Automatic annotation (TrEMBL):
Family label: Belongs to the SAM hydrolase / SAM-dependent halogenase family.
S-adenosyl-L-methionine is among the record's keywords: yes
Classification via SUPFAM superfamilies: Bacterial fluorinating enzyme, C-terminal domain, Bacterial fluorinating enzyme, N-terminal domain
Taxonomic source organism: Pyrobaculum ferrireducens
S-adenosyl-l-methionine hydroxide adenosyltransferase N-terminal domain: residues covered: 3-144
Keyword Nucleotide-binding: no
Gene3D superfamilies in the cross-refs: Bacterial fluorinating enzyme like, S-adenosyl-l-methionine hydroxide adenosyltransferase, N-terminal
Domain S-adenosyl-l-methionine hydroxide adenosyltransferase C-terminal intervals: 170-251
Pfam families in alphabetical order: SAM_HAT_C (PF20257), SAM_HAT_N (PF01887)
Protein name: Uncharacterized protein
Amino acid sequence: MAIALLTDFGTRDYFVAAMKGVILSINPRAVVVDITHEVPPQDVWTGAFILASAYKWFPRGTIFVAVVDPGVGTERAPLLLRTRRYFFVGPDNGVLSLAAEEDGVEEAYRIEARLPQLSATFHGRDVFAPAAAYLSLGVEPRMLGIPVATWVRLGRPSAEVAGGEMRARTIYVDRFGNVYTSARGEVFQIASWGDVLCIEVGGRVIEAKFVETYGRARPGETVALINSEGYLEVAVVMGNAAAAHGLKAGLDLKIRRCS
């Protein structure tokens, strides 16, 4: 059974290695896979978004451990969710919620199992890694914690269309500088392929050609397209849209077809 890790730990320090060491000490046969360890520090939303974008491509039964945990050592609960096809382990701060709720949560537990010596600052190693390892050995979730009825849920990104204008937000920037927005198919209510979109952000307007794929425009041209996750994306062909237009996650957008 695979255990897939997502953290904001980076790879410079020993943190990820320590988690893997705990997992393999409990289950030497575990298959440990890295989703990413480059979530921006303490950015729960980005961690949740990446997890929700990746989890569905893994085989049934995969155990996901997501540790983006600015509340480590506080009253926030360590959470284990059994969904229709998977297990999700991590802090109860919303980082698990987008993926787990999409797959359908069937059981939820506050994790009580942990290493004998529990630190106040590294629950990834001391709580979440052992819980995942025991799950990979076939231990039932009820043996690792106590049932809970509620957990923190993050709101899903959305967009609204009214009067020929769409209101959305930037929600993610990938390593290419492509900027994901919260808009999806709603864009077809205001535009068709080949139209130019006027994207207002921070009092300025970015013009982007609405195309099916990057190759439909010239290098250096700003485009808008529906990306592989179904979101409306702003990109610069062979370039970096975030850098070129000063964009980042969390910005409000007004989008319309340019007249």
